[in-house]
Amino acid sequence: MRHWTTSCRCLWSLVTSLTIYLHAQVYAQNLSTADIDVVTERLAQGATQSWEYGTRAEVLLELNASSYSVFSPTPLPPPQQIPSNLTNALSDVIGIAQMIVANRSTSNGNITGPQPLVNGSATGDPASVGVAVLLANWTGQSTADGLDYAGAARDQLEFLLSNVSRTNDGAISQRIDQVQLWSDFVYMAPPFFAYYGVLTGNQSLVQEAYHQVRLYRKYLRDRTANNIWKHIQLGLYGTDNGHWSTGNGWAAAGMLRVLSTIKQSQFSSSMESQQQDLADWVQEIHDGMYPNLDSSGLFHNYADNSSTFTDASSTALLASTVYRLSLVWGVHKYIPLAELCRETLSAPAGSAVNTSTAGTGTVSVPSSIATSSASAPSASSTATGTPGLLHFTSDGWLTPVVDPYSYADQGQDSPESEAFVIAMQAAWSDWVADGAVGANGTVSPLARISCTWVVINVMVVTLLSC
After folding, report:
1. CA distances (Å), 405 to each of 51, 160, 165, 184, 202, in order?
2. Which residues contact 377 (CB under 8 A, 6 or more apart)?
3. What angle do CA 249, 25, 374 make, to 5 degrees?
4. Rounded Cα–Cα distance for residues 459 and 103 (Å)
5. For the packed helices 245-263 and 203-220, what is the interaxial angle rounded to 10 degrees?
6. At CA 391, angle to CA 397 and CA 313, rounded to 5?
7. What is the Cα–Cα distance from 163 to 52, expressed in whole angstroms?
8. CA-CA distance, 462 to 466, in Å (whole number)?
9. Which of 73, 79, 90, 42 is nearest to 394 (CA)?
10. Chain-centroid distance, C-alpha 51
11. Taking a C-beta distance cutoff of 8 angstroms, is the pair 290, 334 a contact?
């Protein structure tokens, strides 16, 4: 009898250990700090375009100095005096603003008056850097370096409001050469308007941010395609009626930035209906996009066109918006699928991720999760690369990705895709810190594994009690 009891106790210990191990393997399906450090370095090396600088600044705030991000749960505006423990964390963001403002006159041919922060053919893209410029001004950087951040931000604002063509009902064109609306614009300009309005106490600018989003949705939302957005509308040439996945991600992410800016501002109580609209419109995109998730755990470059390549870039960006909507507005509907996408993008090399019912709310366990110790975060990165990850090249670039300079083509070494990974990681980390609400909204991989082992444990307890 003593031998039987001892054997059962050994079996109980073995089962308990296996349970803990299996849980750890599922939770270990994350990008490590080392992985994110590599991705952050690649973004810094690769960013050369105005929207890449702007997106880099925003995701660095979200990752390293969240109290200065619009997604902080603390009220806006942020502190004007930078705490000593955030000086280093904010240095790269301030550095981006310094570089842009120092070079804007040269970029624009030394003109004076309304002008973009960076000269180019896209009107909205330079405004993506505007939040960093406003933050540099707000925290008094001009005292140290003598740059006119306030003037630069004001010129960018006036350029968009006064110098850029519009549709008859007021939508600001994304292009200089013709009136044309791109889904990308929603991430670039409206968040700048909203942040400018909050810092200066100008509610009309915050309302303008909402107004631009509403107009862009009017033109780009495709009612015949479950309300996902078309990429480019209007203009004499260059239209794109397709449902570009990254474009839908840009739109959802931009709306969330405007929503959170309003929510944390002095105008929150007087703009409740606008906030509800923005939250509804983000979920509308999620409702249209996630039924198109491929069995690989990635979106296709054009969401509802399976003949286009799968794209990790838009997958990361859209996952980030699911976590943010959960945090900002308490909508958790697509958390399980965002978790699937995040785990897919974090999968170790050699994995075979598959979900045969993607988009239905039920996902299967990636084949490597329960068996491969290579998924442990500490094993995936070196100081210079990410050789152990399925969806990253050995030197740390997300793959496969759309070419950010030719949206119909597959590319490589995409700076914006690195930014989207950081956005996803920052949003996920905030969501976990907030309690991971919604994680069990459907039958998740962890839940199914847990239930199996609970049954086994109960059987063992029964044997021990005999």
Report:
1. 12, 23, 24, 13, 35
2. 28, 30, 31, 32, 33, 34, 35
3. 85
4. 70
5. 160
6. 70
7. 23
8. 6
9. 42
10. 14
11. yes
What is the Cα–Cα distance from 414 to 393, expressed in whole angstroms? 12
Task: Say which residue the tokens 């050469």 belong to.
Answer: 177
Q: Which amino acid is at 225?
A: A
For 121-174, the pLDDT digits (tens) are 999 999 999 999 999 999 999 999 999 999 999 999 999 999 999 999 999 999
H/E element holding 41?
helix 33-46
202 φ/ψ angles, rounded to the nearest 5 degrees:
-110, 95
Alpha helices in 74-223 (DSSP H): 87-107, 130-138, 141-145, 149-158, 185-188, 190-200, 203-220
Phi-psi region of 413 (alpha: psi -120 to 50; beta: other; left: phi over 0): left
Angle at 78 between CA 72 and CA 83, to 5 degrees: 100
Cis peptide before 291 (omega within 30 of 0): no
User: Cα–Cα distance between 323 and 426 in angstroms, integer?
Assistant: 9
Per-residue pLDDT tens for 307-351?
999 999 999 999 999 999 999 999 999 999 999 999 999 999 987
